[in-house]
Q: What sequence folds into this?
């Protein structure tokens, strides 16, 4: 069982295609400009000296190569000489400055050459991991091996230093990512050495005496014994992804069980309704079970991405729609909120409530409007590489059975019964729930996920999928009724008690002050009112109008419980679209009567 | 119009008398022992040298003299040779170490003699203020003038330094208190100089160039122009008290209007339902209007006391029951919660919600169980001096009209029509609402406050009081129906939206985990259920049993809104009694259906 690569899929229209076009038109360019201004690309020349501006950072290479990976996906889809020349220039800089022994990190080469591999917190292997992913994408897109050669030489060095010589100051990296990248490299080139190195980092984690435990890095025990998702959420998500990938490659049942426990712990106890994870802002980490604050949650955009990657690796292990349900929740909510509707600015953290007054005096002050670039700017280029490869989540193939996990209009090229086949998906999802498939090819089985939110679906399902036997020329249509649902959180979630989230299809909704006035926490939505599903200029998905009420203003601070209410029509917009119309308070969890 | 001094009132039984006995038996002794252990009394000898343990603090004198003031009130009520000897010893130490020019502060004499009056943050005048109050009480209780002589000499020095020589590094004190103390001293001795000095500190505040503004001390403009309560809440409360006292002495209408604005701002926008003030834990200060968090509010015990003092000074300016309503709210809730039921431990901050799990990861972690002594231990001795003088809040006299503001069983000695008179109050308040008065003396008018919470009172009232013409031998009885009320906060209070507080009489109630299990925020009280008012061993006021419901446990993190509920009987205890049965989560603001 294997996810169908996004290279086999071309999106032809609809929701995600529009975001891909926004990416090509705006996001890629905007992130490039911000990175250029801050010296991130110049740093690849490794010639920074004291007194010069834009001192490199230990993680800058990862920002740059994630952008390059995204650019490569664009090149793969469509020639763009100008863009290609930009990427070629960066590759040339990296290749020119790679050390004789294979090492490359623009910070350590230019700033602290003696400190190479001396600190577990230094992100070198994290940067290499992302560089491996970029190298594969660049090689596929352009046929140019330069960057792949660089990472192969660097990976050889890492193999020598960490396995053969055991000469680094640490055994496993402080920021995981290289593990999943090595497994991707193994899948791409088939070299056993890369599998061995990935396995080494995974096997030695949490069971050696040399790794400094800085409390945030999934070190508490050997990975196969992990019971709970813990620590820095982005690191955790990347690590768990690699664990699931290795479990599949090795048929490692113990590792798979650990992944099952971790996945279940996240999605049943530690995930915001938007798919955001890592609610503890103090260390960007998972908090204890059911601790899901709204206004001061962290929910880093990269963490949402890492959860989608983990779920995607899990769906290659077993055909359970729960993985695609989680991916869908992430993509349409906590991931997409990370980028502005004009593609020019980004959220690092993605709160579920904004009370701007409170932030003035709070010890934690999340940003309430997206910004163009961060000091630690991992999220924007992660968006750049995710959008052009978003179709990676759409399908999983198991022989002649194809699972359709995500609904994105487009055409997928397959091999079925040893022959080329194509499946076309036509849909306006998530605006409506009609999905049509047209098939050309040898007989196959199409399993269409019926999402967990679609409780009104009345067709026959098996294990959460609607199954169709398709032969050449067949069309099938699935209709997913899109009712507006009021969702409650587990009673153990203290912050959501007495409150409900509004969801339509995969979209979680929110109230914004700009539409509804202030005091959002005092709004009660009326369950029995007529709910209108409408379009609003500038918002790329339906908005909802729901009958609502709020209390009258009062001069008194305390008074007897008073039932009188003022009626109004509340407007709810998709969560991902919040904070696009100026500074505004916002609320997801609302009272409902 | 003047408050009747507690020296004219002897409580003879009931709620507050029991607390006075607890104070005499336990609190005074416990605070003494903790202060002795930490070297606070020894510091009065002013012989601390480097390398010795228990280095004095700049504010230690204030802790000690507040304890002395409380002890003097006990001596005033009843001879106690052992207690008097203790206080005499302290007075002797202070007198022996007073500087030749009159200065006394055990820290600056022993540790930094050169720094005298050099820093506005140094609490010297704050300590002197409390010493003045202690000296008056000691003089009254024992007839010994020693401490009064000390403070008179010290006050002369302050007058010289601050007014005549203008030689201190600051003009007005960083921590107010001396202003109200000087006005008390003026009332006690009638010396114009003390009034002049008090007026100086009040008039110069907020309008001189020499006071360092450290952002927390009511410096934003001249006092008569203040619009909003701001800054450190204890300091504010003491200052506003002095402002109201001066307005009365001087008939200063402008000052009175400022006091009216400040009082209204506090009680209509910045006061917890428990009477706690200063909700911003970052600087122990007033936050912006309606910012009244529950689990991370500050609400210092001393701030509650300072609000009662301010309201008490206001009720000498005009016969409006709102002042007594606020005093009652403070005394039975946010003040009394500051001391454990066994008198052995104290709260500095008084939250309205405890979620112990959340505190583990929160940036702000209030204590969840009372402790025996604090590094900055201003609150425990403040309790020691408030309890024996609690009757100070009970009555205000205006010629032959007596206002009964607070309900406390006891006997008050008065002068009516030029002759001695006595009024006896018999009540089991707040357990029930029946209050009987028996009068001996010349004809007078008794105005009994009908509390704001008592909406069911059907008797005739004038301006919030029930009026009775009494002559010698008369008895009257007032019955205040004590229904259980569900109270809502102003819609602008974000933290209380959709939630209600339960109040019976003056007592605000809370749910504790020890009675109701965890997940308190998920409890919904049923308004229409039968409510039982019961006694519980060890809790000195009625507890309530109210029908309630909560959700069933669930494995799912998110699910469709589900109306099924589990019924149970919730037990609510008076807020002041929370945290007396081990560590427990607690909640004031509850859902109600």
A:
């Amino acid at each position: 069982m294997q996810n169908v690569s996004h290279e086999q899929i071309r999106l032809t229209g609809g929701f995600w295609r529009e975001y891909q076009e926004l990416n090509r038109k705006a996001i890629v360019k905007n992130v490039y400009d911000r990175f250029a201004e801050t010296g991130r690309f110049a740093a690849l020349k490794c010639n920074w000296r004291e007194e010069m501006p834009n001192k490199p950072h230990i993680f800058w290479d990862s920002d740059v190569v994630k952008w390059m990976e995204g650019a490569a996906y664009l090149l793969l889809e469509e020639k763009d000489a100008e863009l290609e020349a930009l990427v070629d220039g960066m590759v040339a800089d990296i290749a020119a400055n790679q050390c004789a022994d294979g090492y490359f990190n623009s910070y350590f080469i230019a700033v602290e050459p003696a400190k190479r591999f001396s600190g577990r917190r230094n992100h070198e292997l994290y940067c290499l991991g992302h560089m491996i992913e970029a190298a594969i994408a660049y090689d596929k897109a352009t046929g140019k091996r330069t960057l792949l050669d660089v990472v192969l030489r660097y990976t050889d060095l890492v193999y020598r230093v960490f396995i053969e010589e055991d000469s680094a100051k640490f055994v496993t990296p402080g920021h995981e990512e290289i593990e999943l990248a090595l497994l991707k490299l193994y899948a791409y080139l088939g070299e056993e050495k890369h599998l061995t190195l990935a396995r080494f980092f995974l096997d030695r984690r949490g069971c050696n005496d040399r790794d400094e435990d800085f409390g945030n890095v999934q070190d508490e025990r050997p990975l196969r014994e992990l019971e709970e998702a813990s620590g820095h959420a982005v690191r955790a998500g990347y690590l768990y992804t690699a664990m699931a990938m290795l479990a599949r490659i090795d048929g490692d049942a113990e590792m798979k069980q650990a992944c099952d426990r971790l996945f279940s712990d996240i999605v049943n106890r530690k995930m915001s309704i938007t798919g955001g994870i890592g609610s503890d802002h103090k260390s960007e980490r998972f908090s204890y079970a059911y601790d899901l604050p709204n206004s001061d949650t962290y929910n880093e955009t990269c963490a949402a991405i890492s959860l989608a990657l983990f779920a995607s690796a899990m769906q290659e292990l077993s055909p359970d729609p729960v993985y695609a349900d989680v991916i869908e929740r992430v993509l349409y909510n906590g991931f997409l909120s990370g980028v502005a509707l004009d593609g020019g600015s980004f959220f690092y953290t993605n709160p579920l409530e904004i009370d701007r007054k409170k932030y003035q005096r709070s010890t934690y002050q999340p940003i309430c409007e997206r910004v163009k670039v961060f000091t630690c700017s991992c999220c924007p280029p992660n968006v750049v590489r995710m959008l052009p490869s978003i179709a990676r989540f759409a399908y999983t193939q198991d022989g002649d059975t194809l699972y359709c996990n995500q609904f994105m209009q487009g055409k997928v090229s397959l091999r079925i019964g040893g022959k080329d086949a194509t499946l076309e998906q036509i849909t306006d999802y998530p605006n409506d729930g009609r999905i049509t498939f047209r098939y050309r090819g040898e007989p196959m089985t199409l399993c269409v996920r019926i999402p967990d939110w679609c409780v009104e679906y009345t067709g026959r399902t098996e294990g959460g999928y609607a199954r169709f036997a398709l032969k050449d020329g067949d069309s099938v249509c699935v209709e997913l009724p899109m009712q507006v649902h009021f969702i409650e959180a587990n009673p153990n979630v203290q912050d959501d008690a007495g409150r409900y989230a509004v969801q339509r299809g995969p979209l979680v909704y929110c109230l914004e002050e700009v539409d509804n006035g202030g005091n959002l926490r005092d709004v009660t939505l009326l369950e029995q009112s007529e709910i209108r599903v409408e379009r609003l200029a500038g918002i790329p998905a339906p908005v909802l109008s729901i009958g609502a009420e709020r209390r009258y203003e009062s001069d008194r601070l305390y008074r007897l419980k008073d039932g009188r209410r003022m009626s109004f029509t509340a407007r709810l917009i998709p969560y991902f679209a919040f904070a696009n119309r100026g500074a505004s308070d916002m609320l997801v969890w609302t009272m409902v009567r």
About this structure: Chain B touches chain A through 53 residues (CB under 8 Å). The radius of gyration of chain B is 24 Å.
